[in-house]
Design a protein that fits this description.
The chain is of the alpha+beta class. It contains 5 helices and 6 strands, in the order H-H-E-E-H-H-E-E-E-E-H. Strands 1-2-3-4-5-6 form a 6-stranded antiparallel β-sheet. Strand 4 and strand 5 form a beta hairpin. The model has no long low-confidence stretch (mean pLDDT about 95).
Length: about 130
C-alpha cells in the first residue's frame, strides 16, 4: 500500500477507522477507494480543517458518492471531500491516475474538473501549509 504522511498540524484529524469499515467502503464503490485513499484511511478517518476543507469519514464516503451520483456523472472518480462551500474533491482511484481534482458539486462533468494537486499527499501537504500560515 502507498505510504501517506498526514501532518499532525492539520486540524480536525479523526483517529483511524476500523479496517472493516474501510473494506466495506472500498467494496461499495465501483472502482474502490484506490491506493491513495486506502493509505489515508489507514492513518486517519478523514478530517475537517479550520478552513472548512474536509475529507469524509470512511463511513460517509459511499453515501456522499451515491447522493451526488458520482458513478453516473463522473464515472471512475471517487468524491472524497469538499470545501464546505459547494466544491468537491475527487480522484480517479485507477492507476496510473493520481491527481486530485475539484469541481462544483452541482456539475460533476470531468471535462470541467480542475486539477489542484499532483496527488493526495501533495494536496494534504498544501492544505496543512496553508493552515499553518493562517
Amino acid at each position: 500500500m502507498t505510504q501517506l504522511r498526514i501532518p499532525r498540524s492539520l486540524s480536525g484529524l479523526r483517529p483511524a477507522p476500523p479496517q472493516g469499515a474501510v473494506t466495506d467502503a472500498d467494496r461499495s464503490l465501483p472502482h474502490g477507494l484506490g491506493d491513495q485513499l486506502l493509505a489515508l484511511y489507514a492513518r486517519c478517518d478523514g478530517f475537517l480543517a479550520d478552513s472548512g476543507v474536509g475529507v469524509y469519514a470512511v463511513e460517509d464516503i459511499s453515501e456522499r458518492n451515491a447522493t451526488f451520483e458520482v458513478a453516473t456523472y463522473a464515472r471512475g472518480f471517487v468524491l472524497f471531500g469538499d470545501d464546505s462551500g459547494g466544491r468537491g474533491f475527487l480522484l480517479d482511484p485507477r492507476p496510473p491516475s493520481v491527481a486530485v481534482h475539484t469541481s462544483d458539486l452541482g456539475d460533476l462533468d470531468p471535462a470541467g474538473f480542475e486539477a489542484v494537486a499532483d496527488d493526495l499527499a501533495g494536496w494534504i501537504g498544501r492544505l496543512a501549509a496553508a493552515e499553518a500560515g493562517s
